[in-house]
């Protein structure tokens, strides 16, 4: 692996991003966030993109937070600029039109947990540790944690985590709905391959529309959101995927999307 702060590999429409600052437990600094923004420029322009998988280099950490050394001497204005850079970039990642999945392979703290929260879902290795420990440093989550965490796990659990700063293990993260699955670290690679096959085999436009319906619908009242679903459902009959998918079922063969 080269020494770029993020390693990007794309194969058959599946992009794999590896946060690559293992000596600092993959902490998020400005250089890494700029690199992420450049990678997003590329990913957003790809019509053939099918999914994005994100993990951390090494066996110890996904991302252990924003870079504390870089943050320590910031003024309030500089802190605001840093948080804005991160929020904008993380939101672009969240809003990619394809599923974005976090493969959490160790410490997932502070800005790391906030990065995972912006992913559509997360799976964790059994040694993963989660938390929003910012209050231990005299600050609060600044990369979206006070907003996305309660939306994912409910306000009571989010308030527990952001005010105590306590860390939780992978099993507790599973129980509260922060992650979808827990597996041995060695199994994460197999999971990534299975997921790539699953998502790669589905109708690409249908997958994009499904994500859009969930994301956009969550911001609307139920009636508007159901109307959105109906529009996207109807639209799926306008392309070639629906005809191929349904014909393949009736002809007892695999669809070719
Ligand atoms: N930033 C910078 N360096 C880090 C970070 C980090 N977040 N985490 C670990 N490192 C570095 C350590 O300093 C150490 O470096 P060195 O070898 O040069 O001393 C190296 O990584 C290895 O870490 P440890 O020796 O500490 O490893 P341990 O196994 O003993 O401990 C822990 C692992 C428990 C993960 C520990 O490193 C730790 O507590 N890290 C900090 C976790 C944390 O507090 N994260 C939250 C950061 S704040 C944040 O994310 C706020 C986001 C909002 C910002 C708003 C904008 C301004």
Commentary on this structure:
The chain has 257 residues and is α/β, with parallel strands linked by helices. The protein is 48% helix and 16% strand. It has a six-stranded mixed sheet. It has a four-stranded mixed sheet with strand order 4-6-8-9. The model has no long low-confidence stretch (mean pLDDT 97). The chain binds octanoyl-coenzyme A. Octanoyl-coenzyme A binds at residues 24-25, 27, 64-69, 71, 79, 82-83, 107, 109-111, 133-134, 137, 141-143. Octanoyl-coenzyme A binds next to helix 2, helix 3 and strand 6.
SSE blueprint:
Elements: E1 6-11, E2 14-19, H1 30-44, E3 51-56, E4 61-63, H2 68-71, H3 76-94, E5 100-104, E6 107-109, H4 111-117, E7 121-125, E8 129-131, H5 145-153, H6 155-164, E9 168-169, H7 170-175, E10 181-183, H8 188-201, H9 204-218, H10 222-235, H11 240-250
Parallel strand pairs: 2-3, 3-5, 4-6, 5-7, 6-8, 7-10
Antiparallel strand pairs: 1-2, 8-9
The structure holds octanoyl-coenzyme A (CO8).
What is the structure about, briefly put?
Belongs to the enoyl-CoA hydratase/isomerase family. With 257 residues, the chain is an alpha/beta fold.
